[in-house]
Amino acid sequence: MDIKNADLTSIFNIATTQNKYLNDLHFFTGAVCLVILFIVTGLLITIVAKFRTPESDDGSEPKQTSGNVRLEIIWTAIPLAIVIVLGVLTAIVMVVVNPAVGSKKPDLIVIGHQWWWEYQYPKYGVTTANEFCLPVDKNYLVEVLAADVNHSFWVPAFGQKMDAIPGHPNYLWLHPTKKGLFLGTCSEYCGAQHGLMRIMANVVSPQDFETWIEAQKSSAPPSDDPAAARGKVAFNSATCVQCHHVAADAEAKALIGPDLSHIAQRKTLGAGVLENNTENLTKWMQNPQQFKPGVYMPNMRLTDDQAHDIAVYLESLK
Ligand code: CUA
Predict the structure, then answer these.
(1) Is 213 exposed, middle or buried (0-12, 13-18, 19+ CB in 10 A)?
(2) How does pLDDT run across 37-87, given as a tens digit for each residue?
(3) Which residue of 2, 100, 245, 260 is surrounded by the most CB atoms within 10 Å?
(4) d(Cα 253, Cα 259) in Å, to the nearest integer?
(5) Which ligand 1 atom is at minimum distance from the Cα of 112?
(6) CA–CA separation, 60 and 38 (whole Å)
(7) What is the pLDDT of residues 210-248, one digit of tens each?
């Protein structure tokens, strides 16, 4: 699916059962608050209108009253009851949305990096970056971590945010109810490119999910384009392999930068900076700072031919 047609990045575009509970609580609490607002405002206006000083007022002190046990019990009991009801409902929603994880193993591990996302599917031995898949109608346990500084994983249509903290795993349950592409972003300030740490969540049918996982597990088939063959040699001789992992390449086994095993399948480069195509990838490699100032990928001073060949090679990794 095209990013431009991605589903609205709104918390009200409910795409998980968890977000349904959060929205229900949100609207119920909002409705209660609105009723209180109308009652209090109505009473205030009525009292101001009804008890304003009459024309005939002689200026003497009005009748004084002090203490009314019945009234005081009523106006203590009603707000107390409202707070208790809202508190209990909130507690119920918290338990339903974030049930105890116990000894369960995560289905997906999300790791925030400056400034991209790593996704690991430990049950399948699959790792990818910035774009990930979830099967619809399954409750997925997501472990959220960070590699460097604090980040926060947030896809608004999925509901809550979850802090990504180095050395402190947090957990999030996601039970998608709708297929589609859902966008999110890092929502904890994490440095220069905090704003370009985009999340692309693809929710697909369980069958499509299995197909996707199988494709991720296998190495991309080699291309017969001579530029790709030259690009692979250049990729391995430049320092690309010091940071990146490519399943199909015996020399590219580093785990510092995003996994590039199937980079050609991604929609964007640089976690949402550029559309993913050979031309943009060539430009990106020749000067990443131009597109994402502060990015840790250095300018490798590649010649036009080298950059083009490497881009052709990477774009062959389907
Ligand atoms: Cu990562 Cu903000």
Answers:
(1) middle
(2) 999 999 999 999 998 888 888 878 878 888 889 999 999 999 999 999 999
(3) 260
(4) 9
(5) 1
(6) 34
(7) 999 998 888 877 888 888 888 888 888 888 888 888 887
Query: What is the token pair recorded at 182?
Result: 């859902």
Residue 1: predicted pLDDT: 41
**From atom 1 of ligand 1, which residue's Cα is the shortest distance away?**
151
CA-nearest of 221, 250, 224 to 236 is: 250
Among 281, 288, 289, which residue's Cα sits nearest to residue 308? 281
Question: Rounded to whole angstroms, how far apart are CA atoms 34 and 248?
Answer: 59
Q: Which residues are near ligand 1 (CB < 6 Å)?
A: 112, 115, 151, 186, 188-190, 194, 197
Please state, as a whole number, how many other Cβ atoms lie within 10 Å of the Cβ of residue 265: 15
Mean pLDDT of the chain: 90
Number of residues in the chain: 318
